[in-house]
Model the fold of this input.
Amino acid sequence: MSTVELLTRARRGNTLGLRGTENLSLDWPVLIARKDDIVTRWSQGKNATPAKLGIPVLQGVGAFAGPHEVSVDGRNYSAEKIVIATGSTPARPPIPGSAYGITSDELIHLEQQPARLVVIGGGFIGLEFGFALAWAGTQVTILQSGPQIAPALDEEIRELLLKSSEEAGMVIRTGVNVTSIGRDKTVNCEIAGQTKQFAADEVLLATGRPSNVEPLRPELAGIELEHSAVKVNDYLQSVSAPHIYAVGDAAGKHQHSPVAWYEGPLAARNALRGNERKIDFGIFPSAIFTIPAIGQVGLTEAEARKRGLDARTSKLSYDSNPAAGVRNETDGMVKVVYEAGTERILGVQVIGAHAEDIVQIAAVAIKGGLKKSEVGAMHYVFPTLGGALFDTMAS
Ligand SMILES: Cc1cc2nc3c(=O)[nH]c(=O)nc-3n(C[C@H](O)[C@H](O)[C@H](O)COP(=O)(O)OP(=O)(O)OC[C@H]3O[C@@H](n4cnc5c(N)ncnc54)[C@H](O)[C@@H]3O)c2cc1C
Done:
């Protein structure tokens, strides 16, 4: 995404006095090779850690052979406590011809950039890949089954995202019932009672990632599942098999890398020392790496009202932020949701350049219990995109 973001920005360089940037293009094989290199180097670093700590690693596919037994390639190993961290796998929806589609795992290994991509699923993964490929020149169509893309988003943020999708040349259709995918990758569907076809060179199946627990034969250990994940309590302990713990995508709370990194040590300590700490997702910043990106923490305006809170909002367009103006990145908005009277910050949503970083400042302010006006009265570095958050709280 970051490469395409740079490309998108550079292409607008004409107004900044750069010449020739409108003809920039993406070298897909180089992009994929660089991604592979980054992933390999990152994994090598991570893989070296257990050995440094003297922890033996078995390479192989594990599955339960009994409540305390795990078999790996025909050999059984037993343990008093077991932590499941087997992640998730992309869903292949039960649509006739779904075998002709690819998942995100395969898309990131494609040798060629597809000229036309149909994405089935308007959730975060479908949108992230859709935006990246669309700005990189692929003709992208997103087919979403529900009435809107990314249903959890704030309404105004979604409107701005849809506006950007138009600029990127994307087609987004909602209320779609995909009926089949042809051998030639044509996607057949019904929209508002009408039969429609979308031609594609690749079809991305982005309809969710179920937890990867069922192949472990969890029934042999008495592990109860909930929506394909291990059903755990607040200590990440299986509710039906107390000697089993689960973390990350296997525990199914939130599918985010920092969640897995946070939950892993917490579950291991709870398993070894007897439930010491509960999970806490009270303040949970997250981002969607569309172009522009979206950062969010806490409640949206709609969620706050649903909870019966007297919610007010402050909003600021990136247009009013000098750093955004200097950078020629004025498409964006900061929205702060706060409680009337107390001025408690209930949530912050940002769409625009560096939204993913700006929202982290908001997360710290919420954690520290700062009022909206207290953040608004703070000094900040000028000119910065982050300054938009302080200015929003000042208004
Ligand atoms: C396209 C995409 C984009 C994403 N973008 C973001 C993002 O921007 N930010 C973010 O925070 N998160 C993102 N995520 C989510 C994030 O990658 C996951 O939430 C995170 O990797 C979960 O970590 P985990 O340790 O639970 O599982 P994983 O990282 O999936 O690790 C599970 C490991 O278990 C191994 N395994 C599975 N079954 C067995 C078995 N039977 N025996 C032995 N080993 C087994 C697997 O091979 C794998 O190595 C993204 C995910 C996808 C697919």
Observations:
- Residues 61-63, 85-87, 104, 125, 212, 215-216, 248-250, 255-258, 260, 289 surround flavin-adenine dinucleotide (CB under 6 Å).
- The first strand starts at residue 62 and ends at 66.
- The mean pLDDT is 96.
